[in-house]
From TrEMBL:
PANTHER family: FERRICHROME IRON RECEPTOR-RELATED, TONB-DEPENDENT OUTER MEMBRANE RECEPTOR. It is found in: Cell outer membrane. The keyword Ribosomal protein does not apply. Coiled coil: none annotated. InterPro entries: Beta-barrel_TonB, Beta-barrel_TonB_sf, TonB-dep_rcpt-like. It is a multi-pass membrane protein. This is TonB-dependent receptor-like beta-barrel domain-containing protein. Pfam families: TonB_dep_Rec_b-barrel. The keyword Nucleotide-binding does not apply. The lineage of its organism: unclassified sequences, metagenomes, ecological metagenomes.
């Protein structure tokens, strides 16, 4: 099992832009929480299975904290077989096909959405 969490409490100590005072406001694009948790099972003879959840809390898009992008949580799965330097694995990232704003700006004209569900087969040879 592996897990991690980060707490980020960033605010402006002093920030004035013309007549606007943003002191004490949250910094844009800085989530308060990010984290992951994963569980892996290694079976005899090289087989394994792994599941993980990763996520982040909402972020503000401007210094005034008027516009925000919601947080997200994703589930990723992988199962495979390892033998010597070789490994073959089937994986699925973003299993629930969750759509979230991966990048966006306060004007709303430019938004980059998250990658959709990805399913694949990975073949690895380690030198």
């Amino acid at each position: 099992m592996k897990a991690g969490v980060a707490w980020n409490h960033t605010t402006f100590d002093r920030f004035q832009d013309g007549a606007a005072n943003y002191s004490g406001h949250r910094n844009p694009f800085a989530p308060a929480l990010t984290g992951h948790i994963g569980l892996r099972y290694d079976a005899p003879a090289g087989w394994y299975a792994q599941a993980s959840v990763v996520g982040a809390s909402k972020v503000y898009l401007d210094a005034a904290n008027r516009y925000r992008r919601n947080g997200y949580g994703l589930v990723n799965l992988v199962a495979g077989y390892q033998h010597g330097n070789w490994e073959i694995a089937a994986y699925a990232n973003n299993v629930a096909d969750k759509t979230y704003d991966a990048a966006g700006y306060q004007n709303g004209f430019v938004t980059v959405y998250s990658p959709p569900r990805e399913v694949g087969l990975r073949l690895t040879w380690r030198m």
